[in-house]
Amino acid sequence: MYIHQKLFLIFFLILFAFHTYGQEEEEINVVGFRFLNYKNELPKDLLESKSLVLVSVPPVSKNSSLRGDWKSYASESHEYFKKIGIDAVAYAYLDDVFANPEVSKAYADIFTKREIKYIIVLSKVWLKIKNKESLRYVIVITPYSKDALFIANGQSAYKDQNKDLEKAMKKIYGVSIRKDMVKTNHLIIDQPEFLNTFTIIKGLKYQSFPEDLRVDKLAVPKFEEVPIPANRPGGILNNRIAKEIEKANAAVERQNFEIDRLFQNYPWKYELVNLDKGEEQLYRDGFLYRLVRIQSTGRMVKEFLDYETNDIETDYITMKKKPDGTITLRTIPADAPIHKFYIKNLARNEVYVGESWDADETWQEALTNLLDNLVEKLKR
Fold first, then answer.
1. For the domain with range 26-178, which CATH number is right: 3.30.70, 3.40.50, 2.40.30, 2.30.320?
2. Radius of gyration of the chain (CA)
3. Which of 7, 236, 290, 366 could bridge 219 with an S-S bond, Cβ 3.0-4.6 Å?
């Protein structure tokens, strides 16, 4: 009897320790506001299909916003993918792909042309456990939705997070062996291919402002709430994502009020609009121009907007106007995240980016910079 009680106690302690560990380490979300049906199963034809890898890493340090060395992480992971038989045909940085809807659409066109079937989200994330920072490798494998969302709500996904990248990759390999998955990907490239940068500007680009704004009303997109699907998958992670969305949605009204406030010194006509019906509907509603926001590193934003760039440049200078009318110069690292606004002509796809580089670290500062420069220019 005593032996049975002792064995039961040991079993209980092991179970409690395991349960406590599970409670301590929360599941990390690396796919944004997407509700996925997470399973410990790989797609059956993963080793017969093409995959695209979206990478995300922490900044270079806690005291810096500079993007970390994601290409080395991709190169290390690519060696494992080759051994497993995953044909990772190209790599891109997650934030770049979602810089704005036009950028996402351009990337989606590339993915579709290259016959991508699966998206692999490959992340490094710092996780706090008992007030101690621990690095985790998170891998999500899920079908490519063949549109600019890349990943659709409700679809199945394999997910693993591990403190050791090799163990995470061995787990994927083990699942593929146990499921006796057919492997036909034998011509996998030796080194990872990083998708080339491109411009999203289809018409002319002007480093100025459209003078027609003195008479034409400007369409200013609102921040919009993120819908939560009624039939979303369950689970702790998805429940937390739902709470994160609710929190984000609660801030939308305040953000739109802030846009209105920032436009208080704009002397011409503008209107906050929803973009759910697209730019063509805006044009039919009488708008010739719309405001556009883009967010990524300064270097990538310049590439997307067809600025001349130089790999030697490590910083970009933003010109800011003080309330007294004087100009100050702000230096922001080229590989730090920024926001930039520009104006698009809806009839001719022309883009007006302003006379000076006016990107900034928050959307509020970036919008203020653009409006100050625009008003000063068109009032002359």
1. 3.40.50
2. 24
3. 290
